[in-house]
Amino acid sequence: AVPALSPQEKGSTFLQLGSSTEQQLQVIFEVLEEYDWTAFAVVTTLFPGYEDFVDYVEVLTDSSFIGWEHRGVLTLNLTDDPEGTRLRRQLREVSAQIRLLYCSREEAETIFRAAREAGLTGPGYIWFVVGTNLGGSDQLPE
């Protein structure tokens, strides 16, 4: 969709193209299938659209002939945890090494900091970050 131009933007055109969350998930599942990575977990925050994200993951796995091993959904509430203690504990409880993460860019930075501190970002851990709001910065989270 092309947003309406404000009066100060007359004469310029801004068009942002991005893939939908559904398209991103379809590609991710093709990668998972290609590498025979069938066990995964879903990690979300309360970011708007997270319920639709979880539902679409279920649609993709339930309608597939692949024997997906969906190891559950962890929905994080990042408020009232300034030290990240609860977050690190919750991330450690996820049994799958492949994680599909749906959140905002700011939340991703917090989650990856906690995951790194918990030892969940090195070799053997694969994170797929999904969302339409993750770009737009020159600096990427570690």
TrEMBL record:
Q: Which InterPro entries does the UniProt record give?
A: ANF_lig-bd_rcpt (IPR001828), Peripla_BP_I (IPR028082)
Receptor ligand binding region domain location: 3-130
State its location(s): Membrane
Pfam families per the UniProt record, alphabetical: ANF_receptor
A single Gene Ontology CC annotation of this entry is: membrane
Q: Which domain of life is it from?
A: Eukaryota
What the entry lists under SUPFAM superfamilies is as follows: Periplasmic binding protein-like I (SSF53822)
Q: Which UniProt keywords apply?
A: Membrane, Transmembrane, Transmembrane helix
What's the protein name? Answer: NMDE4 protein
Biological source species: Oceanodroma tethys (Wedge-rumped storm-petrel)
